[in-house]
Design brief:
80% helix, 65 residues, mainly alpha, 2 helices, single chain
């Protein structure tokens, strides 16, 4: 138990700031990856909807079977 306290006391303010900065940098990077993935998913859905719409007749009439 004493060892954990000694390790925490050994860190300087700069070490703590660097550690925090690294954690924030990693969190931001993961967030960016997640947002890009979501954007790709939305664009895939939007492109498939426009592809389906282009198969329909432009006059608005239903195709004859």
């Amino acid at each position: 138990m004493k060892d954990n306290h000694d390790k925490a006391a050994g860190k300087t303010g700069a070490d703590v700031k660097d550690s925090r900065r690294d954690r924030l940098k990693l969190a931001l990077r993961e967030n960016l990856k997640r947002r890009k993935s979501q954007a790709r998913g939305r664009s895939d859905v939007a492109s498939s909807e426009t592809a389906d719409a282009s198969l329909d007749d432009a006059s608005g009439e239903k195709p004859r079977q």
